Amino acid sequence: MIIPENKTTFNAEDTCQVLGNNTVLLIGDSTMQQFFTTLVHLLINCHTQLVFEHSDTLVGRAYGRMNRGKKWADCVRQHKPDIVIVTVGAHIYTDDDDSFMGIVHEVLYDMQHMQQESNSSLKFAWKTQSPGGCTKDIQFPTNPVEAAQKFNFSDKSYYKDVYNWWQFYNRDLLLLSTLQEFDITSIDMRMLYSRSDAHPSSQSGREIMKGVIDS
CA-CA distances (angstroms) from residue 147 to 90, 150, 175, 198? Predict the structure, then answer.
């Protein structure tokens, strides 16, 4: 979300004013779709300037989970937006971080090339992953580091069926560090770890998911 200069809180009308005639393309998995839906409801006066494209892995290759949607670069060429926001993670289902960071670097290099082609008019941002799961706690610590530790997805064998939630936080730290190196804007969603219902879902009927997801 855009917080205009000299403002400390989000205001939908001010945000639409700052956005002007620019269009925003959001690309990612179902968590990005939820983010997009939230923005559309908040920015009612300019919601038609927001577009979502589904891309589970951004690069169009399977990493152990679903690989729905187009390659992120194809989405950009199709829609020709002014601002692009991407995210990736839940479908990058590997035990190490190499595949995840390989995708991050691949996309970032493509972003650099696109900026050169568009004479730097195209702007990019990368959203960190929305935390997965929910807990029985009503309130979580306001400090996201402390809150993330409370999720404590330590039993990896149990969480193997829930989209590698236990890897999200550390991978976000790797991502944020890399974005600084490439001078790409980050949309840091780690404050959501302070909510115990971080990831809404409709899959509560699955036995493995009981007690760890929203219904």
Answer: 20, 5, 19, 11
